[in-house]
Amino acid sequence: MSRIYDEGAGAASTSSAWQPPFRGTTQPGEPGDKWSARANEGGPVAWARNHPYKAATLLLLLVGIIVTVIVVPICSVKGCPPKAKEPQDDLLKFGAPRLLVSFTDELIDALDLIPAVLHQYIEKVLLLSSNIQVLDFVDEDVLQEARKYITGEQSLDFLIRDFNMSSFGPNTTEALFGSGMQDAINGVLASLGRRRKLAATSAARLVNDPFFVNGTQYYLNNMNASGAWAYTRGSPEIVIAVLDTGFDIAHPDLAPSLWTNAKEIPGNGIDDDGNGYIDDVNGYSFAGACAVLDNLTGSCKCGGTPDPNSNSNQQSYFHGTHVSGLIAAAQNNSLGITGIAPAVKLMVLRVSNCMGDIQTSSVFAALDYAVRNGAHIVSASIGQDYPYGFFPLSPAPSYHKSWADAYKKAVQPLANKGVLLVAAAGNENIDLDNLVAKGWTYSPCLTLLPNVLCVGATDALDGKAFFSNFGAGSVAIGAPGMQIYSTFYTNTSGVIQHTYAPLNGTSQATPLTAGTAALVVSLLGAADGNYYRAVDVRALLLASSRLPTAGRLPWDSGSVVSAGGAVGETVKLLSRDLKPLSPLYDDSASPPVAMSFQGLVETYYAATGSQYSASLDPNAVPVDQASRQIAFPQRPPVLTAFKYSSGVLATYTALARLAGGIWGVQVESVTGDLAFVFVNGQEVPLDTVTRKGVFTTTAQGWFLLEVRIPSTGVNTRYTLMTKGPNDDEFVQPYNLWGSPAASFLFPDRAPYVQLSSVWLANYAIIDNATVSPATLGAQTNRAGYPLSAVVANPSASLAATLFPGPSPQPAAAAGFLTAFLMPRAAALRVQAFKISCNGCQLMIDGVVIIDAYQPLITGVGVSGFSPCIDLGTGTHQMEMRFALKPPSASSNLALSMGACSTAPTGYLLPTPTNFRALSSEQLYNPLVWDPKGCADTIGTAAYIGGLQCDVYSSGRQTLSFAAAQSRPLYKVRLPACSGNTETLADTCDVAWDFTLESLLPGLNASTPRGAKFGVRCWTLWNQGFPGGNITVEPADASPVAYIGSAKVFGAGSPGSAPSSTRLVDELSRRHQQLLAVDWVQVTPTSRLRVSSNGTVLRVDLVSMRLPIGGLADPTLVDRFNGSVVAHANFGTYVASVYPASTDVAALVVADLASAYAQTGAAMVQVMQPSTGLNTAYSFPGVNASRVRYAQADGFFYPLSYVTGRTSVRVADPQGQATGVVMGNVTVLNAQPFAAAAAARTRSFEMYVPSNNLLSTNVVVKTQAPSGAATFDFFTTAPSPDGVGAWDKWQWVRRADAPL
Fold it and tell me: 196: which residues sit within 8 A by CB, 6+ positions away?
């Protein structure tokens, strides 16, 4: 049987592809045909047909006898007549009975031109890519007869006999084995000099392959392979076809790189993929199944076989093994060598026969196979045989043109598809330009097509290897080709050795260049998967080649291949199209953010576009937010099981630690749905088919990775994949850390103060006993929860607190609990949480990290674990959303926290045995407060009465600011009682109805027209709104109001708030709750009004208390977070500056940092350890007549060791105004400034816990005639211990103050 390579042949039937079939309309045995008659005749003729070798031997003996008996005597007697000169017929040259035929009319079948009776003696193979027809004949007679009919066809392009291109012995000028091998290598290395030895040592740190580490693979250092590997090692998607002698597929350094035909089932005898080849799992041997036709000449007749290792005991077999290792020997496997492109795959295409000869028909069939089966690059270390140093003296025989035309036709399909053919220049030291000039061929090197790259060989010092062919116009580039160490194979009497050895030759330079080309194309095609880029790759290899220091080499580029240079040029090319991205955070083991966890932040927004759009309004408010955990290997980054199936845009964000270089990203969807990828806010264009994209990073660090999904159907499923500079292929990323940096956070208006250690509950009674995920998710805007309660321990008392009354009880309650985590020691920063409930979520810093939702109707509680969370050493807002039924066994929430440990995979995992319930020492709450009780027992806050209002820069258009992030321009506290003395029990009050101009006289006149401000007023309050109704004006200032953690006014809010009765009942009169109102776009004359049921709210000093945070203990550390804040040396530090031209004339600016920055001049600074704030400071060089500021920043240390009320007196001389801020609260408003203002003394009273230092900032604006800034502070009560001036014992310098 035989294989017919014809269009639509489908699965081929057969055992040997090259054995001739019976073809044609005349069948064997039919009369009227001389070929049939010859086959059927009997007697001696039939015996000769059935015994051709014996017949040929007898015939030769008979001819010899005749010549001896007849011809020799005649010539001896009469002399032989002169022999007539016969015309030279190229087709009569000795060779296999095989023709290669091509027609310009590709519809012509050569068999149609040949009488049908001959078809049974001919096998035709059609190479589909080039339309070349290979005709294999049973003998020379049939060939010559058939040829007569073909040559008459007018559209004949070429007709050539199959010819041997070359014979493979060791393709090397010197093969070294045994102990001499390493001696030669050492000699080469010695010639490189110390510079290259050091470079090799440095590069060796990248990989652990022994012969790379010890410098034996010097050639990779010459090519700067390590520079290339910093960006890519290739890709398994890239296939390099190796046209050679086959290779040792069992070699441990080559087996991982073997290409596999995924569509073919091994060993089943079926052409599964319909490509015309049976069982071609790793490639094919096109001349592997050989039978010796002529023992005298050694000529082989070889057929194809799916086993690329057939005849592997032949001497030539090592050649392909050596070549293949240079391309893709495995890297970092602690074995032997490394290939230059270790991540690519090798397609084995054997083209040598049983004698090591390479025939053109085998090469053409291999090229056809390569282009039709997915090869992106072809490495061909083959060429034609010429004598060493051959120089043509005459034009080439005519058949050379036919050879050249045939090769061009065979290679043209590769050029059309973009497959790069890298060909060896040869080892005969021939100037190939001379061959070209005289019409001689050297195929495939001299195939003049844009996808062919002809490679010469260089020695260890970048000179031309003495044997290498060359040519300024014919050879393109050079690569190392002397003493090249690579994988090797020996078979001695059946004893196989997978070993290593050096060879010389352009056969070695060629695969090194092909591997470099693979590195380049792995980057060029990373985005769209198009690795057919022959022309681009060839141009980049030439443009980036390295010119030897000794001068140009004798070929086109004059240079040698530089892997690092080629990849570098590719990176530059890509960078022109892709904006390089810089890290958001410098490199570190974990993201340097306040909180992060292993996973992604999952956020849902109301969809505003189509399923083909990923547009997102930057001001959009999330519908819901959760965490998507990632843990290796059980929780991969697969995005499915969405909480909402329609009407939303889902985003998944995380911080990713990325190396510098070129990155690939892919979002696969089994249903074909679209997804979009952003890195640091820049969209990464994804190919419409492969869904792959590329981006570049400037350095290693942390980047924000975001996936947007506009269609979250029930069956949609997305898989996130990335490919880094050092990755071989796309893999699922696990080093992703979700961070709520961009998430909604409730503004903490009393920051860093442990006012209490309880949970604040905001909730509503609901009628439906079954709660959906949307019920919990809808709590994002914190609106519609009018009821408040304080809960010390949700695990024990939540249900009883929410349902205190007798039966009948309401169906259920839904709401949220809010508290904050205290700062933690560095050793305890990584924690995990566990929550048990029946319908609840746990949020940290605005992100849902546990969602333990269950319908309430089941009555069965569930437990959920969070990922491991890096909490850093800061504070964190915790929120538990809940939906509960009246008291029962499943009604309460159980929350616990435990440490994490590092798993063997390197990822953090919770340790369940370490989980413990949260204690009061681990929690704080700035939203609810028992002022006197907390001050007495916790001791982290002092307090004063009133409402704090802060005015911010007009540049802020939204209320995204917080006290810890931005300093206000002005700070004022209400009410401003008449007289010069204020106490905690004063009954004065004012209406919450004022303008900025009324609080800060002179603001309107000094503010440019159109300028606007942001205003925040806040306090902690023990009252409620009559009737539960609140109104905030003016509407055009976009006001927002909060009570506790509930949004009670503003966008998305129902405008209802806890009534006075409900608030008192639930919180009791001991506790006070945060009341905060924000406005934006406020003018100096805007009326800021808060009212309930038409009645304006009153601001007083008794029902409203302001916590003073920032306390330090006598050891000089902050009571809240344990940081050192004060200096051991008592005394004062004062700074002075002239105000900028933008200073508001009548006011005292609170944000002196801005004033300093606007002056552009250095501050005048004074430090006097012998004095406190009871003296005047005259600053050198300060003009007494000019208005100036002075600031003292430190800690007030009361002399009294008794907790209670403390009164402070402050005196201003003529022409001076003083403002005092403690913590974040204005304890003494600065009076409107005037140069002629009379001297004035004022006092204020505050409640101070014992033995504490209070953070204090004093700002003085003065134009006093003395030129001094006066600080006159005196404690007047309690007496007698606490009375006295603020001398050096009561005033402590900050730790960060200059000495």
Answer: 218, 221, 222
Phi-psi region of 569 (alpha: psi -120 to 50; beta: other; left: phi over 0): alpha
pLDDT at 278 over 80: yes
Report DSSP letters for 124-161, one per residue: EEEETTTTEEEEEESSHHHHHHHHHHHTT-TTEEEEEE
Identify which has the larger pLDDT, 1058 or 10: 1058
**Entry pTM:** 0.59
User: Are the beta carbons of 629 and 867 closer than 8 angstroms?
Assistant: yes
- Backbone φ, ψ for residue 138 (5° rounding): -70, -30
pLDDT tens figures, 51-74 = 444 454 455 455 444 444 333 333
For residues 274 and 1245, what is the distance between their CA atoms, to the nearest angstrom? 94
Indicate left, alpha or beta for 957 from its phi (over 0: left) and psi (-120 to 50: alpha).
Answer: alpha
Token output for 1223: 């913590």
Binned at pLDDT 50, 70 and 90, residue 117 comes out as very high
521 within 8 A of 563, measured Cβ to Cβ: no
Task: Answer whether the bond into residue 31 is a cis peptide, omega within 30°.
Answer: no
**Cα four-point dihedral sign 872, 877, 880, 881:** negative
Of 999, 897, 1074, residue with least CA distance to 1230: 999
Higher pLDDT, residue 1165 or 808:
1165
Flag whether pLDDT at 1120 surpasses 80.
no
User: What's the rounded Cα separation, in Å, for the pair 122 and 139?
Assistant: 9
Taking Cα atoms as reference points, which of 654, 508, 658 lies closest to residue 593? 654
Residue 46 CA to chain centroid, in angstroms?
75
Position of tokens 């004059």? 558
Pick the range with the lowest mean pLDDT from 32-36, 509-513, 667-671, 1082-1086.
Answer: 32-36
Task: Please report which confidence band the pLDDT of residue 719 belongs to, taking 50, 70 and 90 as the band edges.
Answer: confident
d(CA 439, CA 426): 17
Q: Could you read off the pLDDT of 285-342 as tens digits, one per residue? A: 887 655 554 444 445 556 667 666 544 445 557 899 999 999 999 999 999 999 999 9
H-helix segments, 505-588: 506-524, 534-543, 563-577
Q: Alpha helix locations (H) across 1023-1094?
A: 1060-1067
H or E element at residue 936: helix 931-937
How is residue 685 annotated by DSSP? Answer: -
Strand, helix or coil at 1051?
coil
- Burial of 1119 by CB count in 10 Å (0-12 exposed, 13-18 middle, 19+ buried)? buried
Q: How far apart are CA 862 and CA 306, in angstroms?
A: 59
| Omega prior to 975 cis, within 30 of 0 | yes
Of 420, 271, 443, 279, which Cα lies nearest the Cα of 359?
443
Mean pLDDT of 33-56: 42
Dihedral-angle region of residue 351 (phi above 0 means left; psi in -120 to 50 means alpha; beta otherwise): alpha
Is residue 202 pLDDT above 60, yes or no?
A: no
Yes or no: say if 1088 and 993 are a contact pair by the CB < 8 Å rule: yes
Phi-psi map region of 1144: left, alpha, beta (phi>0 left; psi -120 to 50 alpha): beta
**Nearest residue to 236 (alpha-carbon basis) of 134, 376, 350, 344:** 344
C-beta neighbour count of 672 within 10 angstroms: 8
Give residue-wise pLDDT tens across range 1211-1250: 999 999 999 999 889 999 998 888 888 899 999 999 988 8
Look at strands 847-851 and 947-952 and give their pairing: unpaired
Dihedral-angle region of residue 1044 (phi above 0 means left; psi in -120 to 50 means alpha; beta otherwise): left
Three-state helix/strand/coil letters over 278-315: CCCCCEEEEEEEEEEEECCCCEEEEEEECCCCCCCCCC
Q: How far apart are the first and last CA of the chain?
A: 99
